[in-house]
Specification:
This protein is of the alpha/beta class and 509 residues long. The chain folds into two domains: 11-218 and 486-499, no CATH class; 226-478, Nitrilase/N-carbamoyl-D-aminoacid amidohydrolase (4-Layer Sandwich). The protein has helices spanning 11-26, 37-49, 54-72, 75-81, 88-117, 121-139, 164-167, 169-191, 195-216, 248-259, 283-292, 347-350, 392-399, 419-434, 480-484, 487-499, and strands spanning 222-234, 267-269, 298-309, 314-324, 328-333, 374-376, 379-385, 404-409, 438-442, 447-450, 456-460, 466-476. A twelve-stranded mixed sheet has the order 11-10-9-8-7-6-5-4-3-2-1-12. Helix 6 runs antiparallel to helix 16 (487-499). The chain starts with 10 loop residues before the first helix and ends in a 10-residue tail after the last helix.
Length: 509
């Protein structure tokens, strides 16, 4: 019989445990990277919720989400308050509404978990990991998605990293949440002196963790023996002047100056919107870049793109990447746009209410699907602009058409917060999932080169104006995750939801 260690705890104590448990998950991510807190957090959540009713579960799920998002996405306040021309009270209100709204997803999920499992604590333990993973997936898809703070991301340096190229970040999350449920089950089985089933459960759980390091040694992809030289420039342009017409020329001169010693590199990378004018206005600077490049060099830069859209039947802006050079080229238009940062939902009602809804360059349109890679000699670079690198299946699908990943960003929006560190960690997980090198260029950090195991091979610290140079390699072949995406894990979770019912597991268990 399963037991509940917090059955007699006051309501305020149970609520505090849930808030703390949610916040503990934030500590598993960068810059702390205490990945071992993930299963502990899940066990704490279950210690409160395993025997609750539906209404109680909704509130408990909301409190868990509140603890997670209130601690994990504080960087959004920086962009609203410091760079959104918004007063502190209004910024705090918007941040509160955003966090509370996100937490509702967990509230609904916990309520559904109770409906599916009924009163059986065994069913609830089995179903919890499946419901958590499906909730993560829904959160990463609903209303363009917010694929942030997936528990599995914390294991890019953890023992479960080897599962990433095999099954992706959601599989790691399933193992972490399953481990938390197993810890609770082991506690209950040990208290009731049921040592045989406790031993079986413990061995099965431990086997999943021990498999991680073994899988990480498997060469899913083949790394080329021919290195490519690169240089990526971190201009550290203050966000306050980024779109000021009086400083546009100064920004271009910064990047031209940083590139002066590296025009002959195979790949030169400037960050997101490093060219802060549209391509139809940037003809002279593009031609100047072309004249300076070495014969086999390609420069890749973020640039706003103004063009006619057949879908909208009008001219529109894209947040784009342009590759320039005789040995390559191409254009990529960003597909996954940031709500309120790059487009404004319900624009006709929200524009003009407060400064945050009128940010510069917040009228972008998404680019088309299935765009071609950028070409740089033998390298076929599949790009991801800023927020896009947070989407595991999106990056994996695109990576099949390339042998190298490149991502650019302007994390200046988030200041000296935890946001840029989390962003880099997600980029590393995408490199690990796809078994590909990734070159990451940012305005003010962290600029980095990441190898096919998700490890940083060189970087520039935040808030420094500097150039990162070195070598990287193209990769051939696909990881299993690139071929299947998250569907095997999501299907497994759905199967658990469908079949773990009262008719399968008796009601009194």
């Amino acid at each position: 019989m399963l037991s509940n260690p917090l059955a007699r705890a006051p309501r305020w104590a149970a609520a505090l445990v849930l808030l703390v448990a949610g916040a503990l998950q934030t500590l598993t991510f960068s810059p702390w990277e205490w990945w071992w807190l993930g299963p502990l957090s899940v066990a704490l959540i279950l210690s409160v919720t395993l025997f609750q009713t539906g209404r109680q579960l909704f509130l408990s799920g909301w409190l868990t989400g509140l603890g997670l998002f209130a601690s994990g996405v504080t960087w959004i306040y920086v962009s609203i308050s410091e760079h959104g021309n918004t007063s502190i009270p209004v910024a705090a209100l918007l941040m509160t509404l955003f966090v509370a709204g996100l937490a509702l997803v967990h509230g609904i999920a916990f309520w559904g978990w109770g409906k599916l499992a009924k009163e059986s604590p065994v069913r609830r333990l089995i179903l919890f990991p499946a419901v958590w993973v499906l909730t993560d997936w829904i959160r990463g898809w609903l209303l363009t998605g917010f694929p942030w703070l997936y528990l599995g991301t914390a294991h890019v340096d953890g023992p479960l990293a080897g599962w990433a190229p095999l099954a992706g970040v959601h599989a790691i999350t399933l193992i972490i949440t399953g481990t938390g449920a197993a810890l609770y089950g082991l506690y209950s089985l040990a208290r009731s002196r049921r040592y045989a089933p406790a031993a079986i459960l413990g061995v099965c759980t431990l086997a999943l963790w021990l498999a991680g390091p073994a899988l990480n040694r498997f060469p899913w992809t083949e790394v080329s023996n021919k290195p490519l030289t690169f240089a990526t420039m971190q201009g550290n342009i203050p966000q306050q002047i980024k779109w000021d017409p009086d400083f546009l020329r100064d920004q271009l001169m910064v990047y031209l100056g940083l590139t002066e010693e590296d025009w002959d590199r195979d790949i030169i990378l400037w960050p997101e919107t490093a060219i802060p004018i549209t391509q139809d206005e940037a003809g002279p600077i593009i031609e100047h870049i072309r004249s300076k490049l070495g014969e086999e060099s390609v420069l890749i830069s973020g640039i706003p793109w103004y063009t006619y859209s057949t879908n909208r039947e009008d001219y529109t802006y894209h947040n784009s990447i342009l590759a320039i050079g005789d040995e390559g080229g191409g254009v990529y238009h960003k597909q996954k746009l940031v709500p309120f940062g790059e487009y404004v939902p319900l624009e006709q009602w929200l524009r003009g209410i407060i400064g945050f809804f009128d940010l510069p360059m917040s009228s972008f349109s998404p680019g088309p699907k299935y765009q071609d890679p950028l070409i740089a000699g033998e390298a076929r670079l599949m790009p991801a602009i800023c927020y896009e690198v947070a989407y595991p299946d999106f990056v994996a699908m695109n990576a099949r058409r390339g042998n190298l990943l490149v991502t650019i960003s302007n994390d200046g929006w988030f200041g000296d917060s935890i946001g840029p560190h989390q962003h880099l960690q997600m980029a590393r997980m995408r490199a690990l999932e796809t078994g590909r090198y990734m070159l990451r260029g940012t305005n003010n950090g962290v600029t980095a080169v990441i190898d096919n195991k998700g490890q940083i091979r060189g970087d520039i610290p935040q808030f420094e104006r500097e150039v990162l140079t070195g070598e990287l390699r193209t990769v051939s072949g696909n990881t299993p995750f690139m071929l299947t995406g998250s569907w095997p894990v999501l299907t497994l979770a759905a199967i658990l939801v469908v079949f773990v019912r009262e008719r399968v597991i008796p009601k009194n268990r």
